[in-house]
Amino acid sequence: MSDFTQRGLFGDAITALFPSKLIDASDLRQIPDTQEVLLYPDSDVSIILEILERVQSNDHTDAAKFHFESLAHDNSALSSSVGEVAIIPNDREDLTPSPVVLYGSQVVKKFNRERGDDVRILLALYRVEEKQVDLVLSMNIPMRSEAGATSDQEFLASKEVFDTAVRSLRIVDFGLFA
Does pLDDT of 105 surpass 80? Predict the structure, then answer.
């Protein structure tokens, strides 16, 4: 298991466990105020936490699929598919909503490459209904690209990181969504 540490996001209004080796992308480039982006120093895997306007669907599974398809659109995906969607009950004492977790894949052309990269997308949706906010945590794992391939073992290790972050994510200050 990776060396995890609790990381404060959005000025410590949100906390979650992540590998300590992750790099804050804002140290390298400008990131929108509504996003936190974490990068691995040794791979193309990235983790993004984004504050978005709540989609109108009351069905949480449909809302997660909407955000996944929006991500496919933003990525100019050649194709996308949803694998599994599940709700993970929040069994902690805090008010963080139970996340809806979606596992899917997209074929995305990057950097003017000839072929599309096969990217697995792990997405967790936290619906903060009283603030009209959808908090979306996503992890992008390139499985096959011109730069190389990710082994099943490496994918499972990334999925473990994602699952740990999802289960540990805690909204500490709901004033963030004012």
Answer: yes
Measure the CA–CA gap between 137 and 41, rounded to whole angstroms.
Answer: 19
Strands (E), 42-92: 46-53, 79-87
Is residue 20 within 8 A of residue 37, CB to CB? The reply is no
pLDDT at 135 over 60: yes
Domain 4-173 = CATH 3.40.30.10: no
- C-beta atoms surrounding 132 within 10 Å: 10
Please give the DSSP secondary-structure letter assigned to residue 57. -
pTM for the predicted model, two decimal places: 0.93
Spatial contact of 160 and 1, defined as CB atoms under 8 Å apart: yes
Give the C-alpha separation, 94 to 88, whole Å.
Answer: 15
Q: Where are the domains of the chain?
A: 4-173
Q: Using one digit for the tens of pLDDT, what is the confidence trace for 141-159? A: 999 877 678 888 999 999 9
pLDDT score recorded for residue 52: 97
Kindly state the average pLDDT of the residues 58-78: 94
